[in-house]
Amino acid sequence: MEQLLEYFGVLTGLLYLFLEIKQHRAMWVVGFLTSLVYVFVFFFSKIYADMGLNIYYVAISVYGFLQWSKNRACEKSEMPSVPQDSIIYRRLTPRLFIGVSAAITVLFFLIYIILNDFTDSPIPMGDAFTTAVGIIATWMVARRIMEHWLFWIVANGVSVYLYFGRELYPTMFLYICYTVLAAIGLYTWKKKGTRSVDNSL
Q1: What single string gives the DSSP state of each residue in 135-150?
Q2: Residue 70 carries which DSSP code?
Q3: Which entry of 21, 22, 23, 196 is 20 to 30 Å from 31 by CA?
Q4: CB contact burial 157-178 (16+ within 10 A = b; e otherwise)
Q5: What whole-number percentage of the chain has pLDDT above 90?
Q6: pTM higher than 0.85 for the full model?
Q7: What is the mean pLDDT of residues 25-44?
Q8: If DSSP codes are grouped into helix, strand and coil, which group holds residue 195?
Q9: Rounded to a whole number, what is the distance in angstroms from the first to the last CA of the chain?
Q10: Residue 101 CB contacts under 8 Å (≥ 6 apart), including other chains
């Protein structure tokens, strides 16, 4: 059963990333399902922070869907010349970068302390790092900030190593694909995207 859930998560995870590259709202529905499945996969594998991260993903999938729906309608009215299928994004400002970096650092230390002192996690440092980056990067996706792809490239690359060590080979393959597709997503958003006239967050 656990392996079937993992394979299902791999398939829906790939579909999610494809839809994210296309900036299609359906990605949040697929992401909801993927995250729900991985809550159980990571629980059985004792990767507790990533399990908690996927609980967060379940919740933020609802937020992301609502946020993209609202912003898309507003931006289309403000930017009528932009094609219907255009990718609209914001950029990471220097001030926001400082805030994002600080948030990741604080989250990393908090999660590491919890994992190291209160669980039997075999990979507390790596698990804490990918979870901290994932929390912030997912918020950046919901706000359609271009640079979220860079954060995912780093987090997914580290995750490949972690899942290999835990012998979660289908999930490791998924995260190899995630890493490659994140680079493709960054390129696609830069090439085909249109910067939002509203850079407020």
Answers
A1: HHHHHHHHTTBTTHHH
A2: H
A3: 196
A4: ebbbebbeebebeebbebbbbb
A5: 41
A6: no
A7: 90
A8: strand
A9: 41
A10: none
